């Protein structure tokens, strides 16, 4: 398909010349078409117009507006990306004298695009043109890769760049990518300021723009005075001027003044360079010549106060080193920096707890601690006991044997290998002591007296083990047990005592209760031997036997048959304990059944229904019994232990105490009283006979002493 260009007028009577020949006069909106027969054409119009170039491959066409060249237009650098791997051409227009200044993708100048490739455009001496074809399968310089950005620059002047890319069946893309606007050289320095402030020795980046050639003056302290962006290291205040030239041979200049000031001196002091977490770092600013400050704490934290107090936390297991820096800035932005390294040791942390903080004696308390960062531990329980246990749980027993509450201060401390430590305390209150205790004694075979020997208690509860209880607070408590069986019964007696603080103690003791014995009464047999001539108590013995002894032959059971003589009298006596009933009996003055008080088979008879005293006369059937029911003589307690009391409704004249063998233990003359006490504390356990002497006669009773 032929190649064309079209001229579009924008003003009336626009003259169109092709290579210096007038070809058309156009009115606004009219266009003129021209078919290509030459490689280049010089198109000139009398008024502003548009020129549209149509070209392509095969039947695939594309068009582009051509750039004007009657003014300073074009670009010093153009970047583009090749879209297709098919035919690819570059159309380049360049100012005369700059044809050897091209670089492509950094290669050159005058290598990939060479000056010899350009031809003068007929009708002008200012512009040259060339067409370049590049392969898609090779990098620069042999080709232009597909899909990669390619930069073309000219180090001497501006140029125009058109790109056409496509194929006869896949479509064609065509366009110019250079600047169509009129341009001019204008020198400027980045930032727009004409005065800069700098610190001595600080580098300053100077950046100029607006041309292709740059010259800086003076050259002092500059890295390169012929580039657009030299670095200045001024030691004193100085003014730089840059002369900019390039596009279309235009020239301009710009100046900048650099004011050089003295840098500040950054300095600070610290309270310590190492410590345990949480570590409080105190920073005192000693800087000179600075107005603003910035503290970098080494962990991303930035502070802007003059002096700083900062807390470091280290929850790791290793020391952490922080670089702390102070950036001090002067009024003209001069900067100095001071640094120090701070070491923060791992934090030793603990939480201390107890399962109880108060309680009764003895109080067992289990302590727990959750500690991190430590390798040594110490316990002080406040009672003189210490421990270095590393266990996370420990139990300690606290004691209070007083009547007041005791508070123990328990201290726990943990330390690390770095000397870091932490401590916690807890107060443990131990309430006053309470101790339950008692003893007991038998008053009778089934009646027991309990002696409360508890300490610290205010209320008491007795449980006798037989279903009966008592809340008596008395020191002595009497309880009667029952045993209706034929076997011994053990009752467990419990005493629970509690103090005003709710502390409780208890104790259990076993009490043995024997089977209940049938009701018995003491019967005293007194025999008056004064009527028997020739009877000598030193030569003869008197015995009693009867149905209560199963008629044991006299003398065969002396412990239960032998009667004893009451001192200074002709009265012989013996005491027996008998169940209620009627009994037959007879006296004998020697062993054997042939020495009875009479030869007949007739026996004496006594009816026992209470404590009874039988006053018999040898060989006389008539007796005068006396029963205890009249309460004539009372002995209590009986059985007794230490002091035994005697009471009588008749005046007691004297008292004698005998063993069952007849040994006199006590003889009190002229008692002359109805009441008397006998002291048995030095006596042994056993059975004793007490004889009471009245003005009307003698009465004997049995006494049991139990130790």
Structural summary, described in words:
It is a single chain. With 707 residues, the protein is mainly β. Helices cover 1% and strands 51% of the residues. Strands 11-12-9-14-15 form a 5-stranded antiparallel beta sheet, with no helix packed on it. A 5-stranded mixed beta sheet has the order 25-31-30-27-28, with no helix packed on it. The N and C termini lie far apart (151 Å).
Q: What is the gist of this entry?
A:
By secondary structure, the protein is mainly beta.
Which helices and strands appear, and what pairs or packs with what?
Blueprint: E1 4-9, E2 14-18, E3 21-26, E4 31-35, E5 43-45, E6 49-57, E7 60-65, E8 77-81, E9 87-95, E10 102-104, E11 119-120, E12 127-133, E13 149-154, E14 159-167, E15 171-176, E16 188-189, E17 195-199, E18 204-205, E19 208-209, E20 213-217, E21 231-232, E22 238-245, E23 251-261, E24 268-270, E25 274-276, E26 279-285, E27 292-296, E28 302-303, E29 308-312, E30 320-329, E31 335-345, E32 349-354, E33 358-359, E34 363-372, E35 376-380, E36 386-387, E37 393-398, E38 406-415, E39 421-430, E40 438-442, E41 447-452, E42 459-463, E43 469-470, E44 476-480, E45 489-498, E46 504-513, E47 521-528, E48 543-546, H1 558-561, E49 564-565, E50 571-578, E51 581-588, E52 604-608, E53 612-617, E54 620-627, E55 633-636, E56 643-652, E57 654-659, E58 664-668, E59 673-679, E60 686-694, E61 697-705
Parallel strand pairs: 17-23, 25-31, 33-39, 47-53
Antiparallel strand pairs: 1-4, 1-6, 2-3, 2-5, 6-7, 8-13, 9-12, 9-14, 10-13, 11-12, 14-15, 16-19, 18-21, 20-22, 22-23, 24-26, 26-29, 27-28, 27-30, 30-31, 32-34, 34-37, 35-36, 35-38, 38-39, 40-41, 41-44, 42-43, 42-45, 45-46, 47-50, 48-51, 49-50, 51-52, 53-54, 55-56, 56-59, 57-58, 57-60, 60-61
